[in-house]
Write a structure and sequence with these properties.
The structure is a homodimer of 716-residue chains.
Chain A (H helix, E strand, L loop, with lengths): L7 H4 L4 E4 L8 H12 L6 E4 L5 E2 L2 E4 L12 E4 L3 H13 L4 E4 L9 H17 L2 E3 L5 E4 L4 E4 L13 E5 L3 H9 L6 E5 L9 H10 L5 E6 L5 H13 L4 E5 L13 H5 L2 H11 L3 E3 L2 H13 L7 E6 L2 H13 L9 H10 L10 E2 L8 H13 L3 E8 L5 H15 L5 E5 L6 H8 L8 H11 L28 E3 L2 H10 L7 E4 L2 H11 L3 E6 L12 E5 L2 H18 L7 E6 L6 E10 L3 E8 L4 H4 L2 E5 L4 H10 L4 H4 L9 H17 L4 E11 L6 E3 L2 E6 L14
Parallel strand pairs in A: 1-2, 1-5, 2-4, 5-6, 6-7, 10-11, 10-12, 12-13, 13-14, 15-16, 15-17, 17-18
Antiparallel strand pairs in A: 3-4, 8-9, 8-11, 19-29, 20-23, 21-22, 21-23, 24-25, 24-27, 25-26, 27-28, 27-29
Family (chains A, B): In the N-terminal section; belongs to the acetate CoA ligase alpha subunit family.
GO molecular function (chains A, B): ATP binding; metal ion binding
Keywords (chains A, B): ATP-binding, Nucleotide-binding
Amino acid sequence: MKPFADLARFINPVNVVVVGASPRPASQGGRLYANLVRHSRLPGQVYAVNPAYNEIDGAPCWPSIRELPDAPIDVALVIVNAGRVLDALRQCVERKIPYAIVMSSGFSEAGEAGQELERAIARLCQDTGLHVYGPNCPGFVNVRDRIGMTFSPAFQHDLNGGGIGLATQGGGLGRNLLQGLSHGEGVGLWFSAGNEVDLEIPDFIAWMAQDPAIKVIGLLMEGIKDGRRLTAALDLARQRGKPVVVLKVGHSEAGARAAQSHTASIAGSAAVNSAVFRQFGAIEVEDLDQLLAVTRLLAVAAPRPGSGLCIYTFSGGTAALATDIAGTAGLPMAVFTEQTNTRLRSLLPAFANIANPVDTTADILRDPEAANTCLRVVCDDPNVGAVLFPIPMDYGEVTDGIARSIIEVSQSTATPIIPVWMSRRMGGGFELLERHGLQPFLSISGAIGALSRVWPREGSAPLAAPAVPGHSVGAAADGTAAPRQFSEAQAKAVLRRAGFPLPRNEVAGTARQAAEIAARIGFPVVMKVASPDIAHKTECGGVRLNIDSAAAAAQAYDSILAAVAQAAPAARIEGVLVEAMLPAGGREILIGVHRDAAYGQVLTFGLGGILVETLRDTTHRMIPLAPADAQAMVREIRNVAILDGVRGQPPADLDALTALILQVSEFASRHAGRLVELELNPVWVGAPEQGAIALDALIIASGELEQNAIEPEQTA
Amino acid sequence: MKPFADLARFINPVNVVVVGASPRPASQGGRLYANLVRHSRLPGQVYAVNPAYNEIDGAPCWPSIRELPDAPIDVALVIVNAGRVLDALRQCVERKIPYAIVMSSGFSEAGEAGQELERAIARLCQDTGLHVYGPNCPGFVNVRDRIGMTFSPAFQHDLNGGGIGLATQGGGLGRNLLQGLSHGEGVGLWFSAGNEVDLEIPDFIAWMAQDPAIKVIGLLMEGIKDGRRLTAALDLARQRGKPVVVLKVGHSEAGARAAQSHTASIAGSAAVNSAVFRQFGAIEVEDLDQLLAVTRLLAVAAPRPGSGLCIYTFSGGTAALATDIAGTAGLPMAVFTEQTNTRLRSLLPAFANIANPVDTTADILRDPEAANTCLRVVCDDPNVGAVLFPIPMDYGEVTDGIARSIIEVSQSTATPIIPVWMSRRMGGGFELLERHGLQPFLSISGAIGALSRVWPREGSAPLAAPAVPGHSVGAAADGTAAPRQFSEAQAKAVLRRAGFPLPRNEVAGTARQAAEIAARIGFPVVMKVASPDIAHKTECGGVRLNIDSAAAAAQAYDSILAAVAQAAPAARIEGVLVEAMLPAGGREILIGVHRDAAYGQVLTFGLGGILVETLRDTTHRMIPLAPADAQAMVREIRNVAILDGVRGQPPADLDALTALILQVSEFASRHAGRLVELELNPVWVGAPEQGAIALDALIIASGELEQNAIEPEQTA
């Protein structure tokens, strides 16, 4: 894996050069130059390069980088036609300029010629160690130090620095976030590296994870180029205690992957992305306003662990509605201490509701001092982790007063007060809250949605760092052979040698053999066609259950071959697998492995059997898994009650189940170079001590998978 | 059922009297009087009544209603101490004043004495025909005719009338909606009747359904007093083509009802409410901003049926994000005509995305004329039902120009343009859109959420009016006997006589009988303990499956009795039911009936068998059902794919299944007086032509349920 870039001189450059600087104020080169010279606080020089000018605004302008005076330059800002970019970058290498930001467009977003140019930049970076940010991007903004290496005319307006770090792939939406964080805690660094030919989102995450002035990292991603680098960066952020909030575009893409196994077709890449974010502790959101709100809550208004929410308002209907929405979201409500109850009772009229939710009634609004005291009382309660204060309407001076009260009390309490401005009339109270960085939510459900993403849950202490992924990535295997599907019998033989728990079985080549094998195994047995060409055996009449005599076994042999000959005449038939049948009442689950293009090997766990694609109740992890991952997966599925036992059933053998999940992870990891897909479905899971046994197995691999085979490991 | 009130003179009164009028401007009586005299456009007189004054503001004040001059008075507005309300109302009756609004508090919300007062008002209404609105309410506002029978000081500020009708139970949140509808289409009538002692939400719905100036009805409800009146009113609205949007508080209430059957415990009242709203065509929302947005979309910006959504913006990242969110919500995207494509291609730069989503790129913003033309082109496309226009940031004059463009084009097209103001900077563009009644959404997901609730779906033409519910309501039965649970054998006997499809069965009293019956029925059989005291037979060892010989049947008889004797020693045992066992592969579903306190008999349909409480995949309808209801229910469950057939299975016999649902509805309806709960679970549903057969049945009823029994019907 390519190491993360050292961005120290990139973030805080001394001298920079603008290649394509222009005296025309409306041009991109002119705006970029003006942002640096006029609106930034750069400690050193801004050199201008443009063969068309001798000077710009009275400062000298050089014809090329090559001809610049001899000074150490940290970053070259390149905003020339795509065709001239490579030459400029070569001059950067000559002049030992370590970083270049290429803002020009006309690269991989613009057809084949542009793609070739971009590949040439990539090669230059690899060969020389030059770091390129871009191309096709708005630049980089170090808001906290006021350094705008960007052509955006909005740079000078969005200068509210702070502890929030942003990395976005598109530029436009990042501006939305900056505008949303104009007051209170602002944005410290904003990366937006466009096509990401060299420096990528993981580099920025890793840098911000180690930057002491960054508290929270917000990400807006459209695609994921290298899942292993991304997860390594997320892991670094988690180790440093920096929360990461991510909005990933691409949830609705049709998971149109053609695949033999359920595992690969269920695990659409959106589901895998979400699972990986969860695995590495990143908080996923669905819209831009949520990204803003959750990031901001984590930076300045995170609820206290071990506490509950207090809902506080002056309208009974609003209190009921907010409590209902919080309850549906599963947020814990605070139980007040007796002291709080006593003090509220003395402050509020008899008909006010002093239990949580607190409905002060509108009376208290006439007495600002009492209103402040009352709000402070709930903030002081040790059981209150955050106060949600919905304001249902704009009442002019009355709601201005409420805003002032929230601002005042906020300044003297550690408990976050989270206002909700519910009216569309954005009155003075809204403006006051906004200006003081209290950033009211605009709907109760928006506030609850954000709070429920950040509320510290019991037992949600940062997970132990997982086993560090070190295995092969994605599509490429070790190249020995084309992938082929094993027959069930072959797959089970491989798995049996690898020590997996499987039912007793043998392949019969004749009806008579089937009868003999069945008698040897003991009745009842199940019989299944053995063919590498048939993935779904039930559909083509290739399965018989509950066979309870030798005669029935012989008969089943013939009838299976007849049915399959009709349904799949071209399939190669290796015989019929005769197998011990497990007692009814076992839970049927699925464990599968497939290769994800971004993250490499991914393990899927979920409900299995015939309903697997209907219920689609599955969860995912990158391989290899730590024991804690396997235990967490088992509890993540929606219908976990099925494993706990319903209607008097005993629970499932969860020890055996998690052991099997880990065994699959270990097996897949060991065969990472050759294994393309593995699916155990159904796995029969009995009651405690009865074990977890794979009843069916599918393997697709290139080459053989022998136990303990030493395979070449791929370096990503 | 109490008929709906005629509200003509209430909505548009000529003369009114204020009982409790006051010259003190800050008092409730003073504000109410001022709202009527100064801020309303009442065609007649406002009489003041208060024994403490002889005149108010130069107008005469009378000591009591009794002593008023002789003129027809339409509405009495009562704002005196709770203890004096009843006397005032009696005087209304004497003076033949048909309506009174009681705003005073101190009634059922304030303890036992207040509840007694409220009951006395209810009796007075019943005895005399007086209609009372309130008590404990802010009054009624006829915005469109500017009549404010309310003490709210905000009345004079929220006077933007229009075609939206509102009925809210609490007062505060209604004001939020009025403030949100200050521009563009406003609120015509706003009912907020507090404790609803007499006039109730259903009266207001029914009135607005027939009011030609009301286009859409918005409801905010905390509780439901009489479900049958509510559904009758909703039905009236549907017949008149008036969409109803409802926010019902109370989703998170723990469904703590103790019940023998799964049906009653699954059907928490929030689920039943939601199902009933769906049954009667009302659109349910989850928050106040959604109530506002959906109501407004239906009033002025409903998408054209048979069309798709166009996403139109000038930022590529925004286009991708919006398209992703729309795709996840399942909104159909419009496919442009060739003409649209051609025109867009000629208007936009080569690198713009002209397919839907349209990303014009920012270039076009410099040319307002071209921007207007381009927006008009997509609005003119016949395949476009609505245009979603997200604006990711505030760019001062640039975004002001976008707002003007949206306003201009909106005025000349029938296609709704729906702006999303995504920035928290509420700049000039936001103000412009707001002032012109275009009401931008504040997040993409908010806009998509609202649009997906109103988008006309295929085949979602207004449902045929369902069979009009006319049976008993809720708790009360016919009072003949205490409810008792039938044993499975008794229940099946009743159902068999009523013509339900059941497997062959008989009750055995000895092991020998069991063997004989099993042989008569044919193997395999299933055997189950017969006891009226055991609801969940499996849990106490009372069930044996797959019995394939007479000897095994005799043995099973003994072993069942032994197991049950241990697990439930006090249970009365009637014997063991021996029953034909149906072939494997049938789908297991549940059909149940229980009594809901608000809506009376409710039918539940869903996935059955052992997983019923785990999957909780059910849907509900009020009884009686129309055939279209049964067909719709079958398609409403999440895992409908199980009925359609998974992995090569044939589909389930849906004809038999819907017939069975209707048969249960009819049976429950016929026995409404006595039937408390009925549950068929599992029902075995075979492949087409194989039928739907109830394998287990639970009945709780007061008294006997004989076929064709004539029972007294309760009139609600």
